[in-house]
Amino acid sequence: MSGKPFDVKAQKKVFKPASLMGPRSGLPMVVESGEDGTITRIRPLHYDDYTDFESKHPWKIEARGSSFEPPRKTLPGCYYTAYKKRVYSNNRVRYPLKRVDWDPKGERNPQNRGKSKYVRISWDEAAQLIADELLRVKEKYGMSAVLAEADMHGEGKHVAPSHGCMNRLLSLLGGYTVQMRNQDSWEGWGWGSKNVWGGEPVGQIKPAGNQWPDIAKNTQMLLCWAGDPESTAVGFEGYMASRLSQWLHTLGIKFVYVDPALNFSGCYLADKWIPVLPNTDAALYLAIIYTWLVEDSYDKEYVKTHAVGYDEFFDYVLGKVDGEPKTPEWASGKCGVPEWTIKALAREWARKITSVAIGNGGPGIRGPHSTEPARLQSICLGMQGLGKPGRHQAKWLEWHNYTEYPLPFQGEEKSTIAHRAEVVRPPEPSPEEEARRQENLQKLLAAGEMEAYLHQDGQLKGNYRLTKQQAEIPELAELLKTMDNAPLQEIPKCMLHDAILKDHIEWWGLYSFCGPASEQWDKHCFPAPGCSKIHMIWSDCPCLVTCWNDGFNMVKAFRSDEIECVVAQHPWLENDCYLADIILPVATMYEMEDIADEEGSGILPCVYHEYPACPPVGESRDDFDCVAAVAKKISDEVYQAYTGNETSVQKCVELFWQGSNVAHLDKDDDFHKKDIFFIPFKPGQQDVPPGIKPFADDPAANPLTTPTGLLEFTSTALKEHFPDDEERPPYPKWIEKSGSHDESLSSERAKKYPLLCMSNHGRWRFHANLDDITWMREVQTMKIRAKDGYQYESMWINPKTAKERGIEFGDIVKVYNERGTVLCGAYVTERLVPGAVYVDHGSRFDPIDAENLDRGGAINLITPHNNISQKATGMVVSGFLVQCEKVTDEEMAEWKRKYPESFARKVDEGCGACLDGWLIK
Amino acid sequence: MSKVFLIDVSKCNGCYNCQFACKDEHCGNDWTPYAKPQPDIGQFWMKLTEHVQGTIPKVKIHYVPHLCNHCDEPACIPVCPVEAIYKRDDGLVIIDPEKCIGCGACSDACPYDAIYRNDELGICQKCTGCAHLLDNGYKLPRCVESCPTDALRFGEKEDLLEELKGAEVRDPASGLGPNVYYKNIPGEFIAGTVYDPVEKEVIIGAKCRAVSGSKLIETVTDEFGDFWFRDLAIGKWDVMITAEGFEAKTFKDVDTEKSVNLGDIPMDRAK
Question: Are the beta carbons of A344 and B224 separated by less than 8 Å?
């Protein structure tokens, strides 16, 4: 057949990003579509097809006689290869929906959210309903009664962003209450390590430039502790971390994994796996420190010159404070690692030049009191000369977040593509608070630590404001102008249930998402003075039940009589959508024109023009237009203000490109001619000093951003503000039990719930995204099809723990505690420590009893309610007590008798829960 | 000309991109006369299998991709009653979806379990090497193109001779001349951790010997007290551990049908 013309259905080729980061895009892929407008295939982009790669001065790392270079193609994560199934999923919201028994003029039946089904309505009706509700709520309670849930992560879109469009409209109507995203995924570092080493804005060590080349040259042991390059890195950056880790391993660097589960990197690269019980890492770190202290095997000179507050901390470790030396024997009883292995690990760390590799969302960093293991990791690094050659805390992802890149990669200029909406903008502070905040922020900006915060007129107010360059383009500035009515008050996302169910809540810190450590001492409350409680919710990120804390309680909150209207706008009918009264169908990024930039893959940064790969599915519209439809129903004036008198996507793309900060580099006009411009590398980046070497060399000249400029083993700020906090004391401790949490195996509760449940960011999803991709649901580490034909979320369990319960591979099991029951499929494996179960977060909620029983495996439904600790406002979603048992046929039959409607919902053979299951036709 | 696939198992990170890219190309897309659509679920023209060896904490995973071996002497061709299967000049073996009657003879004859019976369409199907793409300017089959770690390679056998050194085919004795080559599929292992139960310390540098018939392998424990005998022939092995100041310890007839973790091994003090 060779030579014959053949239709490979690639008439149209467009670029689409492989990232679900949210506001940011990701590495480009080539999406090919046929003449009929359907997507044919999704492929990596081959750089040589579009540019002269060598002319962009690509980087190269040379170490130990070997070299490592960027590949000549993009490395999209597997779910991006399979994204066609997401676009055309049977789970898509195809037209506006209204909950069948929600009647704004009659009974609203809030108690049936998560239970009753939906009917199709027209766009006209949907927009009118929402507009009427907004005006009614405004009239009755004021605009602070409207909660906007508009935080990451979703599809990376710019012109019509997946998050925050409604904030524009709500601002025009007088403001709203913002749901402030807590520091999810890096809880412990944010609330803990920042008080040891600064590391703004997330609390991991900074600067991080050129860490990986330095590790390649100098490191002897890499401790992979909290994070998996094969899971947590893939959603943002694709598989560069896989290639990097493989290359580092070939150099002879010893890879040691400390993790309750043998993660997807460790399972093929580990030279040593040390299984640890979930959320007991703090005990292990303390015993390591103890060993170093008694064997005199840490860098004493460095500690003397680079740290403060170590004496009192060391006294605690040695047992001088509480009479309990933190010996390996002591730790072994807590964490389950044999005493001899703890000592061996401590000695190896002392003997070998060691770096710690992390990712976001590792199991060791999201448990009760996660500040403690994080701070202890920072201190361990500090005791072995952090910043000296080969001694770093290095990250497998988010390479774009740094001013200096961990790979010797940096575009000649950093691209900044605007985002036509405001996400997680904090309410206006009091003048005194603002003055203090500006002072702190300016200090961080000067130190180069706050680059992630864009600024306007030198004022730092949060994310996604105009850059100076963007502000100089009047049309663009007009398009992106900040609406006057800022959020009127805020609620920490991890406390939303309390905000609804209680009259008044208070918390410390968490004024702004990713805010600096100096915000951690402020006390806030809800409702704010003069503001209302919540009576209406509008969400473009409906994933609380599967990604946040105490999900069943969230359902109870959504069912409150006080919540009169819930609007969800989303491409897929999943998770919190089932709690909504009106659902707007959103088009995916594949169906839209847009502009995107990429700088995180580590290969070659670029800016590209996205064209639609296919027409919108059903009646879906992009997020901007979803909100515009509502604006139009309110008034023409509001509509004009909302759109900024600009509705042409093409025009926006052009303005965004002009404001991208790299347009002036595009001498050949590649952006317009080829729809993609590759930003050349900046020469000389290989000479940027690695990590915090300047601090290691001269701490006085290159201070950290801590109050003393040094590593604070005992935090001066915590000592000043919260000297008596037993849950986050001035120096880190082992906390077995506290006022906030009782989740240890030694607890009375453990008699009923004797297993520690671990949860991580899954490999086959990106948070709540991608759970419906049929091809991925066939991978057994994600889903297991049980004997009833339903694909249950895999729950990993060790054969020993399974046998004690008569559980066999593929059995339907229930994981439960006081907060409810989640059904899963047993994945019996040697890859998990006994005494634990492991369920990734993000599996879709499939409520049987929406307040108590879930079939979808959304494990966050039963995660602890309380924050990390009383003064650390973040969530706890791993390392908590549960029991696990096999579901008997009788029990299943009983549930089916009790909840016939839930079991009668249609479940798609390939994608599981689907639109048809919730639709009344 | 003969196209070959070369798979380096040691580079496979188990991302399943190959399996998903195959589905992306072939599910819902009709490439007649090369192939009709692959069913959306349940069948895998490119199938990744996961292999778990050992027990906690001495566990290793590797992944092996399986696909049509595009044999030199395909077992499927002669058994086809309607002569629907043919081998192209470039070596790729194709089942003509329009001629195939779905009798399943090819599927039964294939020693690699690479042919699936599509009941809905009433035909047998398998990997085409993405011949429809190769014939139209694309350089690689989708599975190979999507591999992020270069674990999968594809090309002319003559061009890959260097890389093919040390690579093996599955079931070479079949005489079919398969063209999918594998490198670095690990064998079974025996491993353990040696420690002193009195001092509660690992024992570093303990001598470990594994003997099976005339075969003898020696190693010493590392800084974690660990020893690993890797890539062992299947059989019964005697493992002897000696360390200065301790009684020798022997494990008889350790069966390497499956990998064995001897666990944390306490050593008694020498009398």
Answer: yes
Nearest to B57 among A44, A82, A274 (CB): A274
**Strand-pair partners of B94:** B86
Q: How confident is the model at residue A5 (pLDDT cuts 50, 70, 90)?
A: low
* A271 & A340 share domain: yes
Whether B223 contacts chain A with CB within 8 A:
yes
Residue at A646 is within a domain: yes
Please name the member of B52, B131, B224 whose beta carbon is closest to the beta carbon of A829.
Answer: B52
For the segment B156-171, the average pLDDT, to the nearest whole number, is 94
In a domain, A482, yes or no: yes
Do A195 and A157 share a domain, yes or no? no
What's the confidence (pLDDT) of residue A163? 93
Q: What's the whole-number mean pLDDT along residues A846-857?
A: 98
Residue A689 lies in a domain: no
Q: Is B99 on the interface with A (CB under 8 A)?
A: no
| Residues A459, A399 share a domain | no
Q: What residues contact residue A373 under an 8 Å CB cut-off, 6+ apart?
A: A188, A192, A226, A279, A281, A282, A285, A364, A365, A367
Residue matched to tokens 């790392």: A61
Q: Answer for the pair A151, A541: CB distance below 8 angstroms, yes or no.
A: yes
Tell whether A170 and A193 lie within a shared domain.
no
Residue of A nearest to B135 (CA): A2
Is residue A624 located within the same domain as residue A709? no
Q: A383: pLDDT confidence band, cut at 50, 70 and 90?
A: very high
Total domains in chain A come to 3
By CA distance, what is A797's nearest residue in B?
Answer: B56
- The neighbour count for residue B81, using CB atoms within 10 Å, is 9
Instruction: Please report the domains of chain B, with CATH numbers, ordered by start residue.
Output: 3-183 (3.30.70.20), 188-266 (2.60.40.10)
Q: What's the confidence (pLDDT) of residue A453?
A: 43
Specify whether A144 is located in the same domain as A241: no
pLDDT tens digits along B140-151: 999 999 999 999
Q: Are residues A108 and A131 in the same domain?
A: yes
Binding-face residues of B in 15-54 toward A, CB within 8 A: 15-17, 19-21, 23-25, 27, 29, 33-34, 40-42, 50, 52, 54
So what's the pLDDT on residue A512? Answer: 81
> Chain A contact for B149, CB < 8 A?
yes
Write the single-letter amino acid at A759: S
Q: For B225, which of A75, A344, A833 is closest by C-beta distance?
A: A344
C-alpha distances out from residue A533 to A151, A152, B177, Å: 20, 24, 74
Q: Is the dihedral of CA A769, A775, A780, A784 positive or negative?
A: positive
Look up the CATH number of the domain holding residue A713. Answer: 3.40.228.10
A762-776 pLDDT, tens digit per residue, is 999 999 999 999 999
How far apart CA B57 and CA B192 sit, in angstroms, is 9
At residue A361, the pLDDT reads 77
Is the CB of residue A814 less than 8 Å from the CB of residue A869? no
Tell me if B15 and A78 make a contact (CB, 8 A cut-off): yes
Q: What is the pLDDT of residue A686?
A: 74
Asked whether residue A385 is assigned to any structural domain, the reply reads yes
Instruction: Name the minimum distance, in Å, from the CA of B58 to any CA of chain A.
Output: 7
Shortest alpha-carbon distance between residue B53 and chain A (Å): 9
Same domain, A623 and A487: yes
Q: Could you give the CA distance from residue A473 to residue A466 in angstroms, rounded to a whole number? A: 10
Note the pLDDT tens digit of each residue in A274-302.
999 999 999 999 999 999 999 999 999 99
Residues of A in Cβ contact (< 8 Å) with B20: 78, 81-82, 775-776
Domain that holds residue A352: 187-411+704-721
Q: What is the pLDDT of residue B155?
A: 97
